[in-house]
Automatic annotation (TrEMBL):
Gene3D superfamilies: 3.50.50.100. One of its GO terms (biological process) is aerobic electron transport chain. Keywords: FAD, Flavoprotein, Oxidoreductase. It comes from Pelatocladus maniniholoensis HA4357-MV3. Transmembrane segments: none annotated. InterPro entries: FAD/NAD-bd_sf (IPR036188), FAD/NAD-binding_dom (IPR023753), NADH-Q_oxidoreductase (IPR051169). This is NAD(P)/FAD-dependent oxidoreductase. Coiled coil: none annotated. Its cofactor is FAD.
Length: 455
């Protein structure tokens, strides 16, 4: 299929791609915009744990692109990109269709890296998409059901042991979530929740080492031990093989085997294969094989192509692979695309790192705000939830998700009245004085007043 040349094609519907499209629509971009993604839903990955454990619904965390882009003028195409021809300025799809472009936005993100560990791709469970969350949910429920029915002690131990590989933010958040709600699930089936084991297998000497969440390590280590079942953290333990009923790891030059029916892989990412295949010389790539882009987020050799998020690296500017970076770059790319179309000067992208937010269990989190102060426990949980909800794409989706969260999380969740005042200040400082901040503050203060009246 041949399309008009004067159009912008966005490949990938993650934070960078979707926010580029939404900002172009908002800024009345004078050219047609096509967004291509293999899935029909956007995945708000920082909140995928909440979708997985039932704290949030699908419309909040994995809304359909068709709903998010309704009325925007952006054309959404659900298809798999087969190849990208930078010289011919053409994107070819698995369906056989192809799109010519005047400008291209590369927003493919990254992919799970198994580091050539034997059996990892075949037997370890990733946690990257809605489909991954659904598959893991089914797998764990099946293990718990079998465990409560078996009298074989060794078999039950394997079924109730979960190993999370990777001590970065993803592994820590997954381990904390599992250690809280798996015991609840198992108890509901009539099992003894103390039999649940959650093990965090970390290659390095410390969890969160080299991660943007590194300042929160001490809080994380403490909170992980205070889950419904304490998390066992194995450091300097390198996964070497994954089997259907065990994982092997190397520690102190000795290979050990840990019986388990559940290995969850959170041990890093690699550059998307389509990005690796681009005709970009090695000297214009970083050490992870990602293409370098200018401060205006353009490829060095193909200035009509913009790239952001996990699949690109800004020259002389190291940025963490986080959602807040990706969505801000989406806004910057949109602004520069409009400037380019109007013959105006492009501006260097500006990314403001506002801090870090780390989920550590149900109703528990840690937050490092603007590198100025740290918050832990339920106040951090409220800040994390409220902050991410302000980032949900499109005002209507933001409003619907926020009001439901406020009703369930704050309105109906008991808060210690002695802590309410502090939580108001902490939540509003990060969320801001906008709609969500005002609602949070008003509701919490009202709750405080009600508690005082009862006293």
């Amino acid at each position: 299929m041949n399309s008009p040349v004067y159009q912008t094609v966005i490949v990938g519907g993650g934070f960078t791609g979707l926010f580029t499209a939404l900002h172009l629509a908002h800024e009345h971009y004078p050219r047609s915009v096509i967004l291509i993604d293999k899935d029909d839903r956007f995945c708000f990955k920082p909140l995928l744990y909440e979708y997985f454990d039932g704290e949030m619904d699908s419309f909040q965390v994995v809304p359909r692109f068709s709903q998010l882009l309704e009325g925007s003028g952006v054309i959404f195409v659900q298809d798999t990109v087969q190849s990208i021809d930078l010289h011919q300025q053409e994107v070819k799809l698995a369906s056989g269709n192809s799109y010519k472009y005047s400008n291209l936005v590369l927003a493919l993100g990254s992919v799970t890296s198994y580091h050539q560990v034997e059996g990892a791709k075949e037997y370890a469970l990733p946690f990257w998409t809605q489909a991954d969350a659904i598959a893991l949910d089914r797998h764990l429920r099946d293990c718990l059901q079998k465990a409560v029915q078996t009298e074989d002690v060794e078999q039950r131990r394997r079924l109730l042991t979960v190993v999370v590989v990777g001590g970065g933010a993803s592994g820590v958040e997954m381990a904390g979530t599992l250690a809280d709600f798996l015991p609840h699930w198992y108890s509901a089936l009539g099992g003894n929740h103390s039999e649940i084991r959650v093990i965090l297998l970390n290659h390095g000497q410390q969890i969160l080492d080299g991660d943007i969440n590194d300042p929160l390590r001490s809080i994380a280590e403490k909170e992980l031990q205070q889950r419904t079942v304490p998390i066992e953290i194995l450091t300097e333990a390198e996964a070497t093989a994954v089997h259907p009923n065990a994982i092997e790891y190397k520690s102190n030059d000795e290979v050990k085997k840990l019986p388990t029916h559940t290995t969850i892989w959170a041990a890093g990412t690699s550059t998307h294969p389509l990005i690796q295949d681009l005709p970009i010389p090695k000297e214009h790539r970083d050490h992870r094989d990602r293409p370098l882009v200018t401060p205006t987020l353009q490829l060095l050799d193909f200035p009509e192509v913009f790239a952001g998020g996990d699949c690109a690296a800004v020259q002389n500017n190291s940025l963490p692979p986080t959602a807040q970076v990706a969505y801000q770059q989406g806004a910057n790319i949109a602004s520069n695309l409009k400037a380019l179309a109007l013959g105006e000067e492009l501006e260097p992208a500006k990314v403001n790192i506002r801090g870090t937010l780390l989920k550590l269990g149900l109703n528990d989190a840690a937050a490092n705000l603007f590198n100025s102060f740290e918050v832990a426990g339920e106040p951090a949980h409220l800040i994390r939830q409220g902050t991410y909800l302000t980032l949900l794409p499109t005002p209507i989706h933001d409003f619907k998700a926020t009001t439901q969260w406020l009703d369930e999380e704050i309105f109906h969740h008991h808060l210690d009245p002695q802590d309410v005042g502090k939580k108001v200040v902490q939540a509003v400082e990060l969320v801001g004085a906008g709609f969500i901040g005002v609602l949070v503050a008003r509701k919490l203060l009202r709750m405080l007043g009600d508690e005082e009246k009862r006293d």
